[in-house]
Amino acid sequence: MSTFRGYALVTGAGQGIGRAIALELARRGFGLLITARTGQALETLRQEAGALNGGRVSVVALDLLAPDAVDRLEHAVEALDGPLTALVNNAGQGLWGLFDELGFAEQHRMMRLNMDVPVQLTHRLLPRLKAQREAWVLNVASMVAYHALASMAVYSGSKAFMLRWSRSLRLELKGTGVKVTCVCPGSVITGFTERAGMTAMDDLARKFGTPPEPVAKSAVDALFKGRAEVVPGLLNRITAGLQALLPASLIESTASGIYLKRLPKR
Ligand SMILES: NC(=O)c1ccc[n+]([C@@H]2O[C@H](COP(=O)([O-])OP(=O)(O)OC[C@H]3O[C@@H](n4cnc5c(N)ncnc54)[C@H](OP(=O)(O)O)[C@@H]3O)[C@@H](O)[C@H]2O)c1
Which of 2, 78, 105, 218 has the most C-beta neighbours closer than 10 Å? Predict the structure, then answer.
């Protein structure tokens, strides 16, 4: 078993990318404070991760959009038997549909989950992280952060925010012990597409998507190498590299065309 490296708080750890990141961190010696709404999924992860890190797993089942969520997480951090040294802002959701056809309330909830929650949680916990000799913040954005995407206007905007905020925060924290990394995954096979109402894209997601485990490994590797940003997977890195060379309008109209063509009529 690796040497204990302090605790990592992982949001959205119940399934998908967050779960895989939590396991990867447990394997590398971190205790875990895991959170999501579904308690049963967290209990299953507690068993699995506990076998990797000597049982150092704390569980808080809550809705991150509840008004007291950040307070409750801070209390859970205070109750840990070791320091908080890592924060993973992973919980997030997508919504597929035209901006004016999706409800405002559901899009606003997504904005709060994808942007307000990570900003508020990081703001609250940063003093503790800065007090450590070394600490890490891992933010989960998406490849959609790089370009506009019709039918996911608010989602792609929220991930562009995540990426820009993350890179700016990293610069502000230069000279402290806190490293900030943003991971921008392409398609990953998780519960995400179903929750986002994207089942009509499932065949493409399955064809081009990767399982969450290599994404988590690549993200955690980049975190400990102190990288600002990482796109997991060689094919995604090549795509992102080509996209950077081509005119944004071409990339945006091509990708948007694929998404709009499959968008079910309301
Ligand atoms: N999958 C992809 O293709 C993909 C690609 C790029 C980026 N991403 C990003 O990766 C992150 C993780 O997504 P994923 O693919 O792993 O999705 P997922 O399988 O749907 O997992 C999302 C996790 O977040 C939790 N969660 C959702 N809403 C919550 C809330 N209100 N309060 C507390 N926890 C909440 C869920 O648990 P509960 O439902 O139990 O709360 C679950 O554990 C997201 O930020 C997403 O935008 C995903």
Answer: 218
| 87-126 pLDDT tens trace | 999 999 999 999 999 999 999 999 999 999 999 999 999 9
Ligand 1 mean position to 92 CA, how many Å?
A: 5
Q: Which of 38, 116, 190, 236 to mutate to test the pocket of ligand 1 (most atoms within 8 A of CB)?
A: 190
Number of domains in the chain: 1
| pLDDT, tens digit (0-9, with 9 covering 90-100), for 139-190 | 999 999 999 999 999 999 999 999 999 999 999 999 999 999 999 999 999 9
Q: List pLDDT tens digits, range 130-143.
A: 999 999 999 999 99
Q: Which amino acid is at 261?
A: K
Domain around 94:
7-262
Edge to edge, what strands does the sheet with 229-230 contain?
Answer: 57-61, 31-36, 7-11, 84-89, 135-140, 178-183, 229-230
Please check whether residue 243 lies inside any domain of the structure: yes
Return the C-alpha torsion angle 138, 228, 240, 210, nearest 10: -30
What pTM was computed for the model? 0.98
Ligand 1 pocket residues where CB is under 6 Å: 12, 14-18, 36-38, 41, 63-65, 90-94, 113, 140, 142, 185, 187-188, 190-192, 195
* Structure tokens given for 220: 């955690």
